[in-house]
Structure formats: structure tokens, C-alpha cells
Automatic annotation (TrEMBL), chain B:
Residues 377-543 form the DUF1023 domain. This is Alpha/beta hydrolase. Keywords: Coiled coil, Hydrolase. It comes from the Bacteria.
Length: 189, 595
């Protein structure tokens, strides 16, 4: 069985640059309303049609609340802003699509960085910013450190969905919380 | 085996079968009125304790009550569930295939093809007239249109010569189309035979197992009545066992009706005392299966732990250089592997406190449901992210070559990704994704994935699984079946041979699906979707292995775009990678009914 190309990061190493990429995107977004939730997930890394043990793909998803997902700011303006921002950083835009649906217009903007990390801004039912690692060597969960979320998600809160990596609890102390936001925006919207 | 011919099916009056089912249903309702009268007018009326008070009167009341109970049970189990439902199901199945025949047979005739061969293996061949027309350079207009040539209007003009030089294409095109119709016809008749055989099995099983009646009143009544009551209790267990072992002849819909007909205490008793008769059974609701399967999983892990301890102890008394030791060590390693695999599955779907875990995904977070597992062969695991019984959209993923229990984490991750994508695309709907590793997947690309036997082995189980989802789910649920790689071959075989319950079928990176035409899948062709990225080597699979590539032009159905990964990477499995957001978006749209 062939392995995927030698990755730049291990899984444990990948979270920090991926989170930094998300944080960088947030800084470019004007009148940013805050994300509702952050989710850390994995997908199988494959080669030759076969899932390769020892490798994984990390995906970090930041989700806007449903009301925010529907605003022109988030659905249209942010696409334009991110396209310009990511292009200015030298990232390769390899998907920039618009899909008309009966009740809404979906958009999809994808950029890749030279280190293999991809950024996917997907305007669909929800609007999300996704950061993907590409294939990385899998790490034991004990080796993975909690990286505080960006964009207003409260570290260790209900919507910081990284719990399966930290069964003993998420270390909230000392975490950076730039927006000092509540667990949920639902009450204030 | 079904003796149904295509002519029988074409001419069959499905309405008459359905009317017969209605008659049985009406009969059940009528008869229930009689048992109700027995209870209210006899037991609680004329023969009530108020009028007759004696041991004999009590016995008589009890005996009449038991007879009424038995009659009602039989009406429900036999007249309603077995007979009426069988008639409705077979009428629906025949009518669906009959409608396909009504579309297909005129096409065969219009194109001057002929249906030949035995009912088990129909051929669609070129007629003698069509052969002659091609050979005499007078091909029919439809064939000229398909080959992109003008129909010759005289001898040896330019068009005629062009046709002549395209003679091979004319034949090839005509034979190719006949082959597609043949696939379609064989699939229609295969599903019709399957429905016929299943109906026959359901009815014959009923005939072979007549039920006991309450004992007659008389001197031996007291001796026999306790046995009878115990027998009634054991009957439910016997039915559950027969259903679980596949000898009841009941369809998933009938199993569901049987389950719903049990009392709450009977259902609970089965889940607690015989989880092995509940967990794996299609047609039993997801919550109950999940509870039973989690118990079975605990039990299996404990059992394997005991076996491992015993084997380790036995090893200590053996000569490490002996053959016996080698064999025992190998068995020990197998047991440990199975235990670790099951423990890994358990860890994934269970919280530390033993409660069912929730998948990490967008709100609302979805629980994992365990619908099946096993350590045989390369292992089995059927895990749903979200409850398919309550979901608006259910997407069932069938994975491909080398899928096994050991790597189940990655497979569940993929299902979780698909559920998450669907939820993000359709926030107003509830979305569940099932990872169905309910078959022994090929372990190798060469030679195993080149063989059909793995798909044929999975076909009936996938049919029953999808029909079970239909039986336990909501009436208007949008069901999608998504296959990846060899998983598409599994779906194709099941759909064309046995029939599946699906609104949409999606083939991702298919080596072929056992048929050359989307028409043979028994699903509206508009809802058949295929994708293969331009660098995926799977498109080089020869047609003789598993049939034509469903993403090819002639297959029918729809195709959608998937982006490639790096040019120098193997692009067969990049469909859920960070290089194919286009494909993931489309998959989510299909699964949520937005395409």
C-alpha cells in the first residue's frame, strides 16, 4: 500500500497553523458578527483508493449562526473580501463558484496555501469557514493540544466542539478569547 | 423459484392482487368486530360473573377470552401482516416492474430487437430484419441518427459509402443498445422474480407453521391450560428467533408490523433477554436496534476477554517451540484483534459514562446509532450519524475495497463529514447518514475487487437494509444510496438484482455497477448520479469486469463534476478531500433533495 505524499505537518502540529489561518481570515472581515461554533473533525486519508492507516485529514469548521448565515454581509461581501485577501497573500484560488437555487444563492471560495492548508468559505444553508490540513500523519489524541478558537467562540464552551480530543475537559484557563463572547448568540439576535 | 415470464408480468392485473389484499384487510376488520362482541356481549354480558358464578363459568370465560385473543393475534399476524401485506407488497413490486416493462418492451420492438432465451436469462438480440437492413446498407433511421450518418437514399451514393465504412459502428451501436435493453429487461425480471419468491416464502412459511389453539374444556383443561399460556409467551420468542435467523419469510415491512403489534413489555423483554434477535433485524426501529446492539457489543467484548484469558492461560502450559503453541498463539492474536476492533467501535460511539456519544458536527448534534456489527471475515459495522427513523434525509454510504472493522473510525469519519455537509446545506431539515459496512468487502484491488462475488454476497442484505429504513422511517423521507469505489458495484448489483429502496443513487469513483444502463437500477434515471474525476485511474477499468462506467456518456442518468487532487497523487479517493469541495457540495445537495 502506498502512503500519501510526505506531509508537512503531523496531525498534532497542524492545528496551530490551521487555527492561525482561520484567525487571519477573521481579521480581514469587516463588521464581523462572530461565529456560532467551531468543530474539529477528521476524515480518512487515502491512497490508491484505500484508506491509509496512520494518516488523516483534519478539518476545522467555523459556522456562522443561521441568522448571520443569511445576511448579504456574510453571503456576499465576505466572499469578495476573502477572495481579495487570500489572493493578496499569494494563496491560489482554485474554486470560486456560484450556485443558484430556488430559494437562495450558494457560493464557494477555496484557496490553498503553499504549505498545503486549504481554506474553504462555503455559503450554503449555513455559511462556514473551513480549514483543511490535507493528509497528515495521525497523532495520538494525547499529543493534541487545545488551540483556543477564533472568531468569538468561547473556548471550552458548548459550541467549542473539540471535546473528543480532550475527554478530561478543555483547558479554558489562559485561553485567548478576543471577542469575549457568550456560548450562543441566539439570545442576542 | 419464480416461473414468472416477462409476458406474464406485462399482462398481470396488479389491481386484482391489491383488491385481494384490501379484501383481507376488510375481513380482518369484520372479524375483529366479532371478537369485540364476544368480549362485551358474552364474557362481560350474558356470561358475566354477575349471572354465572362458578369454577366452570370462570373456565368458560377464560377459554372464550383466550380463543378471542388467539383469533385476534392470528388475524393480525396472518390475515393482516402475512397475507394482506404480502399481497400489497408484491402488487406494488410487480406494478413498478410492469411499468418499466411498458416503457421497455415498446422500445425493444421499435428498434426491431427481439427478446429470446429462457425466463431466467433473457437476451435482447437484433432481429433478422435488422441484420438484413444493416447488411444491405439500409439501416433504419434511428441507427443512422445514433451513428451520426444520413440514411442512404440510393445505391452507392456518398452516404451509402459512408455508411458502408461505418458498418462496424452500425453493428456495434445496435448491439450496444440491445445490450442496454437486455440489462434493463434482466434487471426488471430479476427484481420481479425476487418479489415473487419473497411473497411465496412469506405465504408458505405461514402455511407450514399453524398456530396452537387454546385447550378444549373438559377433564384435561386444567392440565393443559398452563402449557398453552406458556406456549403463547414462547411463541413471540419463536417468532423473533425465526425473524432474526431469516427463516420467517417476512419482509422488513412485515417485521415492522409484527414489532409494532407486540406489547411494550414484550418488546422490552426481547431487547433485554434476546438482543441478538433485535439488534441485527431490518424492520425493527433504530432506537431498539441500537439498544440491543450496544448490549451485544458489551457482551461480545466481555466474551472475547474471557476467551483471551483462557487462551493465555492455556499457552503457559505449552511448549513455545511446538506447532500447537503456534496455532494457539495465532488464535489468541485473532481474538485480541477482534476485541480491540470492537472496543474501538464502542469507544467511538459511547461516552465514558456509557451513554451514547454524539457526533461532533453542526447543531443539532447527532447521536451515533449502532445498527449492526460483527467480526466475521474483515468485519461488519453499520453505524448511523443521526436517527434515520426520524430524519427528513437519509444518506447511506456503502464503502469499497479494503473497508474493514479495524479501520471503522475513518469510515465513520467520512459518514460524519457527509452528515455535517448535509446539515450545513439544509439547516431546516434533519439529516442522517448511515455508514453501511454490512458486507464482506474485497481485501485487495487485484484480484478481489475485480470479482463480482463480494457484490453479489451483499446484494440481498443491502436490499433488506434499505427496505428496513423505509419501514421504520418517515413516509416522505428522501433516501439516498451513495457508493464509493467497489461500494458502487455493491449498490448496482443490489439495485438491479433485488431492488433497493432509494430515491437517489450516487456512484462515486465507480469501476462499474454490474449493468450498462441507469435504466436497470429501478430508480428514476433522473435521480442516478455519477462522478469520476479526470485523473482517477478507475476510469480505465475495462467494461468486462463490472460493466460500463456509470459516469460514461452512454450509461444514462446524470454526472457531476469532481475536482482532482494533485496531478501526481492517486486520485481515486480524493472525493472527500480538501481538493474536491465541488463534489462535496453536490453530494450534500443530492442528499438533501436540492438537485
Amino acid at each position: 500500500m502506498d502512503n500519501p505524499p510526505e506531509p508537512r505537518y503531523t496531525q498534532a502540529e497542524a492545528y496551530a497553523p490551521m487555527e492561525a489561518a482561520a484567525a487571519d481570515a477573521v481579521t480581514a472581515l469587516p463588521d464581523f458578527p462572530g461565529f456560532k461554533e467551531r468543530i474539529w473533525t477528521e476524515m480518512p486519508a487515502t491512497s490508491g483508493g484505500i484508506d491509509v492507516p496512520g494518516f488523516t485529514i483534519v478539518e476545522i469548521t467555523y459556522v456562522f449562526s443561521l441568522p448571520d448565515s443569511g445576511t448579504p454581509l456574510v453571503r456576499e461581501t465576505y466572499v469578495d473580501v476573502l477572495r481579495e485577501h487570500w489572493s493578496s497573500l499569494g494563496y491560489t484560488i482554485f474554486r470560486d463558484a456560484v450556485k443558484e437555487k430556488p430559494d437562495r444563492t450558494d457560493r464557494s471560495l477555496v484557496a490553498t496555501r503553499p504549505d498545503g492548508i486549504s481554506l474553504w468559505y462555503w455559503v450554503s444553508g449555513y455559511t462556514v469557514l473551513r480549514v483543511q490540513s490535507g493528509p497528515v500523519t495521525a497523532s495520538d489524541h494525547e499529543a493534541i493540544e487545545h488551540v483556543p478558537p477564533t472568531g468569538g467562540v468561547r473556548p471550552g464552551g458548548r459550541f467549542d466542539k473539540v471535546g473528543k480530543y480532550f475527554p478530561d475537559g478543555i483547558p479554558a484557563d489562559g485561553a485567548v478569547d478576543p471577542f469575549d463572547s457568550p456560548d450562543s448568540y441566539e439570545d442576542v439576535l | 423459484m419464480s416461473e414468472l415470464t416477462w409476458e406474464h408480468l406485462r399482462d398481470l392485473d396488479c389491481g386484482a392482487i391489491r383488491t385481494l389484499g384490501d379484501t383481507w384487510k376488510a375481513y380482518v376488520e369484520q372479524q375483529l368486530a366479532h371478537t369485540e362482541r364476544l368480549r362485551t356481549e358474552v364474557i362481560e354480558g350474558h356470561l358475566s360473573a354477575e349471572h354465572f358464578e362458578s369454577d366452570t363459568a370462570t373456565q368458560v370465560r377464560e377459554q372464550i377470552g383466550m380463543t378471542a385473543d388467539r383469533y385476534e393475534d392470528d388475524l393480525s399476524d396472518y390475515a393482516s401482516t402475512r397475507i394482506a401485506t404480502t399481497l400489497f407488497e408484491v402488487a406494488d413490486a410487480f406494478e413498478k416492474e410492469q411499468n418499466e416493462l411498458k416503457e421497455l418492451v415498446p422500445l425493444i420492438e421499435q428498434h426491431d430487437f427481439e427478446i429470446e432465451g429462457p425466463r431466467s436469462e433473457y437476451d435482447v438480440n437484433l432481429s433478422g430484419d435488422l441484420h438484413q437492413a444493416i447488411l444491405t446498407l439500409n439501416p433504419p433511421q434511428w441507427l443512422c441518427d445514433m451513428c451520426g450518418v444520413q440514411k442512404p437514399d440510393g445505391f452507392w451514393d456518398l452516404d451509402t459509402i459512408k455508411v458502408l465504412f461505418n458498418g462496424v459502428d452500425l453493428y456495434g451501436t445496435a448491439i450496444g443498445l440491445a445490450g442496454q435493453y437486455q440489462d434493463w429487461l434482466r434487471a426488471v425480471m430479476s427484481r420481479a422474480h425476487d418479489a415473487d419468491d419473497e411473497a411465496a416464502a412469506a405465504l408458505s412459511e405461514m402455511r407450514e407453521n399453524p398456530t396452537e389453539l387454546p385447550p378444549r374444556l373438559g377433564a384435561t383443561y386444567d392440565d393443559l391450560v398452563d402449557d398453552y399460556k406458556e406456549g403463547v409467551t414462547e411463541e413471540v420468542a419463536g417468532e423473533a428467533k425465526a425473524i432474526a435467523e431469516g427463516t420467517s419469510g417476512m419482509s422488513p415491512e412485515q417485521v415492522n408490523q409484527w414489532w409494532e403489534g407486540l406489547s411494550e413489555s414484550e418488546r422490552q423483554a426481547l431487547i433485554e433477554e434476546h438482543p441478538e434477535w433485535v439488534g441485527p433485524v431490518d424492520g425493527i426501529p433504530t432506537e431498539s436496534r441500537d439498544t440491543a446492539n450496544r448490549t451485544l457489543l458489551d457482551n461480545d467484548i466481555d466474551r472475547l476477554g474471557t476467551q483471551i484469558a483462557a487462551k493465555e492461560q492455556a499457552l503457559q502450559g505449552m511448549d513455545p517451540e511446538s506447532e500447537e503453541y503456534e496455532q494457539a498463539k495465532e488464535e489468541l492474536d485473532g481474538l485480541k484483534g477482534d476485541r480491540d476492533d470492537l472496543a474501538n467501535l464502542q469507544d467511538r460511539i459511547t461516552n465514558d459514562d456509557g451513554t451514547p456519544a454524539l457526533a461532533e458536527g453542526p447543531e443539532p448534534k447527532q447521536p451515533y446509532y449502532l445498527l449492526g456489527f460483527g467480526t466475521q471475515d474483515s468485519g461488519r459495522a453499520i453505524v448511523s450519524v443521526g436517527n434515520p427513523d426520524t430524519a427528513d434525509n437519509v444518506n447511506t454510504l456503502v464503502p469499497g475495497t479494503t473497508s474493514n472493522l479495524t479501520d471503522v473510525d475513518g469510515l465513520i469519519n467520512r459518514a460524519e463529514t457527509m452528515q455535517s455537509d448535509a446539515q450545513l446545506a439544509a439547516p431546516g431539515a434533519s439529516n442522517a447518514t448511515v455508514m453501511w459496512l454490512g458486507y464482506d468487502a474485497p481485501d485487495t484491488i487485484v484480484p478481489e475487487a475485480m470479482q463480482e462475488r463480494w457484490a453479489d454476497g451483499a446484494s440481498n442484505d443491502l436490499e433488506r437494509f434499505t427496505k428496513g429504513l423505509d419501514a421504520t422511517g418517515q413516509p416522505n423521507t428522501n433516501h439516498t444510496l451513495t457508493g464509493h469505489s467497489y461500494g458502487t458495484t455493491v449498490i448496482g448489483h443490489a439495485a438491479s438484482q433485488d431492488g433497493v429502496n432509494a430515491d437517489n443513487i450516487v456512484f462515486v469513483a465507480s469501476p462499474g455497477v454490474g449493468t450498462d444502463t441507469a435504466s436497470a437500477l429501478g430508480v428514476d434515471e433522473d435521480n442516478v448520479w455519477s462522478t469520476t474525476n479526470s485523473l482517477d485511474p478507475i476510469q480505465l477499468s475495462p467494461d468486462f469486469l463490472h460493466g460500463a462506467n456509470p459516469a460514461g456518456e452512454d450509461f444514462g442518468g446524470n454526472t457531476f463534476h469532481s475536482d482532482t487532487g494533485a496531478w501526481n497523487a492517486n486520485n481515486h479517493s480524493t472525493y472527500w478531500d480538501d481538493t474536491n469541495m465541488a463534489g462535496r457540495e453536490t453530494l450534500a445537495d443530492i442528499a438533501t433533495g436540492q438537485r
